[in-house]
Design a protein that fits this description.
By secondary structure, this protein is of the alpha/beta class. Helices cover 47% and strands 18% of the residues. Strand 5, helix 8 and strand 6 form a beta-alpha-beta unit.
C-alpha cells in the first residue's frame, strides 16, 4: 500500500537524515513566529529624510520630532539630509524608497505642494506618490519694509503700489516658492503690480531690505521676529489669520479690507512612500499626535516661530489638496514657471 511503503521508507531512513528533516520542519514552523516576534519597527532604525542641509529650521524640527518619535516607538530615528533643488531631491528619494515603514520624510510646502506646478522637470506628484502621516508645524511669514518706505502697514503699501505701479519691489526666496505665490495673491486681490526680486535665502533678503536695495521682503517668522523685536526693521504684516504672540504689534494681512480672509502659512509635515501599510501610517500618525502635545515640543516649535500641526492623515490630505488647488490657480493666472 502506498501509505505503508512511505512509512517503511521513513523507518528505514538513517538517523542523520531524520534529524535533518526534523530540524528543517521545526525551522519552517518557527518562521511565522519569528516574524510575529519582530514586527515593525523592531527590525531596524527608521530613516527620516530631510530635504535640506543640516542646521536649518526644517532640519531642527525633524531632529526634534525624530527623537521624540523614536522614544515613543522604541526604535532609533536617523536623520538623512538630502538637500538640493529646493527640497525636490529629498522628496523624490522618499517617494522611491521601499514602502515598508522604515523610510519617512519631513516634507514642506515647496517640494510637496508647489514644485510640480511650476517646474516641468519635477516628475512626481506628491498627492499621488506620498502617504500623509500628519502636519508637524504651521508658520506664517512676515513682510518687512526698508527704512524710510512711506508705508507702515499693508493698506498703505497697497495705496503706494497703486500710486507707483511696477515700481515697488519685493524680495522672496525664489521664483515659484510659497513666498512668491503669497505676494502674487496679494497683488491679484489688491489690484496692484509690484516687482519680484528672487533671492537664495533669508539672510540676503534681510540684508538688502535693511540696506534699501529692495523695498520689501518676505521672511519666515524665525528670521523676522528678532529683527522686529530689536527694532532693526519694520514689519508691514503677517500672513496668518490673526496676529502672532511673538510680535503682536504686527497686523495680520486679513485685517486689511482688500485682503480680508487671506491666510498663507508655511508648514512642515511627515510623509511615507505611497503603499506603506495602513497600520504603520496610522501608528506613526498616532505617535506624532502624542509627540506634538508634549510641552517641551510645543515650546520649542513656538520658539522657532511655529505652532504645532494638528489633524489626522485624512485631514492633512484634505488640507494639502485644497492648498494645491489654490496655488495652481495663482500659478496659472500669474503664469509662473521656474527656468
Amino acid at each position: 500500500m502506498p501509505g505503508t511503503c512511505f512509512a517503511a521508507l521513513i523507518f528505514m531512513m538513517p538517523k542523520t537524515l531524520l534529524a535533518a528533516a526534523a530540524g528543517a520542519a521545526i525551522a519552517a514552523a518557527s518562521l511565522p513566529v519569528a516574524h510575529a516576534a519582530n514586527p515593525w519597527p523592531a527590525a531596524k532604525p527608521i530613516t527620516l529624510i530631510v530635504p535640506f542641509s543640516a542646521g536649518g529650521n526644517v532640519d531642527f524640527q525633524a531632529r526634534l520630532i525624530g527623537q521624540k518619535l523614536g522614544e515613543r516607538l522604541g526604535q532609533s530615528v536617523i536623520v538623512d539630509n538630502v538637500p538640493g533643488a529646493g527640497g525636490v531631491l529629498g522628496v523624490a528619494k522618499a517617494i522611491n524608497a521601499r514602502p515598508d515603514g522604515y523610510t519617512i520624510v519631513m516634507g514642506f510646502d515647496g517640494p510637496v505642494s508647489v514644485a510640480q506646478l511650476v517646474n516641468k522637470a519635477v516628475k512626481y506628484d506628491a498627492e499621488r506618490d506620498l502617504a500623509p502621516i500628519g502636519q508637524v508645524s504651521v508658520a506664517p511669514v512676515v513682510l518687512m519694509a526698508r527704512p524710510g518706505l512711506p508705508a507702515k502697514n499693508m493698506a498703505e503699501l497697497i495705496a503706494l503700489a497703486k500710486a507707483q505701479p511696477g515700481k515697488i519691489s519685493y524680495g522672496t526666496s525664489g521664483v515659484g516658492t510659497v513666498l512668491h505665490l503669497a505676494m502674487e495673491m496679494v497683488q491679484e486681490r489688491a489690484g496692484v503690480q509690484m516687482v519680484h526680486v528672487p533671492y537664495r535665502g533669508g539672510a540676503q533678503i534681510s540684508n538688502d531690505v535693511m540696506g534699501g536695495q529692495v523695498d520689501t521682503g518676505y521672511l519666515v517668522t524665525t528670521s523676522a521676529t528678532p529683527l522686529v523685536q530689536q527694532g532693526k526693521l519694520h514689519a508691514l504684516g503677517v500672513t496668518s489669520a490673526q496676529r502672532i504672540d511673538s510680535i503682536p504689534q504686527v497686523p495680520a494681512f486679513a485685517e486689511t479690507p482688500a485682503l480680508k480672509g487671506l491666510e498663507i502659512n508655511t508648514w512642515t509635515g511627515l510623509f511615507a512612500p505611497k503603499n506603506t501599510p495602513a497600520p504603520i501610517v496610522t501608528r506613526l500618525a498616532t505617535e506624532l499626535s502624542t509627540v506634538l502635545q508634549q510641552a517641551e515640543v510645543r515650546q520649542r516649535l513656538k520658539d522657532g516661530g511655529a505652532t504645532p500641526g494638528q489633524g489626522t492623515p485624512v485631514q492633512f490630505a484634505a488640507f494639502l489638496q485644497k492648498e494645491k488647488a489654490a496655488y495652481a490657480a495663482i500659478v496659472r493666472s500669474a503664469k509662473i514657471e521656474q527656468e
